[in-house]
Write a structure and sequence with these properties.
This protein is of the alpha/beta class. The protein contains 10 helices and 8 strands.
Length: 226
């Protein structure tokens, strides 16, 4: 018998499959496993899911230590980046989705060079200019890409954003549409630029309708964290 979170995950997968068919595109689900134990993650791995997102470095490292390498997990760092933790982030993750500082990008590149590693990144956009959120303003994106595209050990895969919850509740799609337009305009200019990471538990359906091809879901699967 399946646990409730496993059933919810399969329900979300059905919705993703429907969107994928409707819009004829591949959609990647990043399962946000922060605050979840290794037992739950293992059960999800046994269902065939391999892509997980973590916000907190030390918590993620502890989980990675307890999970067998045989699972071949793709780890995404989706938390705030601190300069003094970049070496560890680079060595424990395959993707960093929250890059919005030139200083951080340079430090990531330097750490990758030492490991002979190329890391996938998304540039985080603060699409609604909210003070509580990280990310660069969309008007500064071109300049930012020009600066960091010189770094050899970083692969710019796309954009990541967390649109305003209020706008999502009102079904105001302006921010989503603006991100999609920006993404489309850059796709042909940057090699390997293929990821628009928008949509979480509260707005993933809206994000998928407006061009997202990567969603990050935790609460909708596991329920509210204690």
């Amino acid at each position: 018998m399946m646990d409730e979170y496993e059933n919810k995950l399969l329900d979300i997968q059905t919705e993703i499959n429907n969107f994928s068919k409707k819009y004829n595109k591949k959609i990647k689900l990043v399962i946000v496993s922060k605050s979840q134990n290794v037992h739950k993650i293992t059960k999800i791995l046994n269902l065939g899911y391999k892509v997980f997102g973590e916000n907190y470095l030390d918590e993620a490292i502890n989980k990675q230590r307890d999970l067998t390498k045989d699972y071949n997990i793709e780890w995404h760092f989706i938390g705030n980046i601190q300069s003094n933790k970049i070496k560890k982030i680079v060595s424990h993750f395959d993707w960093i989705q929250t890059v919005s500082s030139e200083k951080h990008a340079i430090l990531i590149d330097e750490s990758c060079k030492k490991l002979s590693k190329i890391i996938n990144i998304c540039i985080q956009i603060n699409i609604d200019n909210e003070e509580s959120k990280s990310g660069i303003h969309i008007k500064d994106l071109g300049k930012f890409i020009k600066k960091i595209s010189m770094l050899d050990n970083i692969k710019i895969r796309g954009l990541m954003a967390i649109p305003s919850k209020l706008k999502a509740l009102k079904e105001d799609a302006n921010s989503y549409s603006m991100l999609k337009l920006t993404f489309d305009s850059l796709k042909s200019k940057i090699e390997g630029f293929d990821t628009l990471s928008i949509g979480m538990s509260n707005d993933f359906k809206m994000a998928l309708k407006h061009g997202s091809n990567m969603i990050r879901i935790g609460q909708h699967i596991f329920g509210k964290r204690n």
